[in-house]
Design brief:
Length: about 625
Amino acid sequence: MITNRGDGSRAPAVHRIPLYAEALFGEKREQITAETDPALPFSPKGTCSECHVYKHDYDIINKGWHFNSTDPNIVPGRPGQPWVYVDAATGTQIPLSYRAWPGTFRPDQVGLSAFQFTQRFGRHMPGGGPGEIETQIDDEIPRQMISGNLEINCLACHNRHPAQDQAEFAANVAKQNFRWAATASSEIASVSGSAEKMPDTFDPAMPDTVTDPELIPQVPKVTYHQGIFDHKDNVFFDVSGSVPADRCYFCHSEINVTEHGTQKWEADQDVHMTSGMTCTDCHREGLEHNTIRGYEGEVNPNALATKTTCKGCHLGDEKGRPEGGRLGAPVPKHLGIPAVHFERLTCTACHSGPWPADTTYQVKTAQAHALGTHNVNKEPNALPHILYPVFAKESEAAVDPNEPPLRGPRIGPNKLIWPSYWGTRAEDGTVKPVELAGVTEVVGAALKGLVPARLGDWAELKEEQVGQALKALADAGQTKPVYVTGGMLYQLKEDGSLASEKNHPAAAAYVWPVAHSVRPAAQSLGVGKCTVCHATRSPFFFGKVAVDSPIVAVSNLTRPQYEFQKAKHARTWVFAMSFIFRPWFKIITIGSSAVIGIVLLLYGLKALGAVARVLSEQEQR
């Protein structure tokens, strides 16, 4: 079988290609031309397969990192950013992921089908994964027949045309226009209408059969722009294997709203980007799309994975030919830094994320806050609330669970989210979340009338209201209902009163490592003096990690940074205290050494004089 593989040329391939519609029946794909009536949305899978052999290459790409989250056989790697389901009206903020990251829940555990998950979060996906799971739910089958699957949209990453509009892709996903979304986002066409508004009997291949005047404007319709088809009915796409950074930014942007609000011009870029690099210089992949994530211990068949880390580029492996200094990376000397720092800290601990303050900052990310989409909430305090930097020990999930760990867990900067959700408690103490539909129906009714304090922020929830909601859940048949929020677990006692439990495992914060933005060496943590970290008021150890909850009494709490490093307060404080006296120790040591040196020099000179006298007396004899 012949597939399209690179021949080594760095010149971009010109993509002047025919458009093909989705293969609705068997393998037959209809070519789309200027005369096709009604105009059909093009299928990325069907169109790109003319060169990237139909199904063969697509199936390979579908196993890549951006698309394989639903495959249980894929090693999940170190914890990453979750998807966050938020509902301020029920006090819900729950991290979700199809990957087996401890602290997250699979969407089906909270009652979200793959179809529902795609409609809610597909806005910041390049398609594939849950978007191509065939539903087995009776009510969803006709809906999916209308919406189609959300195929991998190659243009989402590879299109260099400035009119590639991922916000339009997101808008169409929200309207269940899955099969139309790629077309709507491209520069060659526009899409109107909403599949979600169509009745279950609607046939996308026969849109003219809709006669209801109220529904006609909602029929999904494609309009190809005039002049995009050439004399051979081919269309030009400005695509490249080298993905522009702007395409990555739609899904991977973030902004420190505590310092900068939502104004990106106030925030500095990652030092790698300002030096002229782009995302794919480090996060490389081949046709198989096994994107290098770039951390030590990453399980990735890509041969460059071990070289494309902080250490791999800046230091190399010190074996064979020199590997340090790749892509012009400076090779650091780290003069005067004790070796123990490199055993216990990640490179990012000193070089990534914002400079730590007495209290953590709040950050908004594209995936969590739908940044870049139409009508997005621009309020800095819009949910979910994500905090950083939290200096915590990395999880050993960073390496293959079937292999022994490469090293002990090291301290690095992390983002953090405090889960808030309603659940039930089993006899063994484990907590299972209540399905979101039930929460909306039961808890929503019990808490009816809650008004968010600010647009998109939490509504203030009182403990007595939590008790009322738990009683409503119990009356609805939920066994031992609980509410998890801000590291606390609330439950009803035998007499019906409310009890709280601190530090229950189910209420633990979910943390994931910070990689960007990277600061230059001159702004690295600890530059110039040790007491940036080793002081009794250092934010690194003694800074406050905010606690987030709709319950005011809980949200006023804080946790010290050293708790996330699994360190004891007394030992950490005493060690930091020792740095106050270390300059004295140095002075005393240098002074003592000088005195000892002088004494030794004097006695050495006396010894030399004695030897000289003995030698002189022997010569006189």
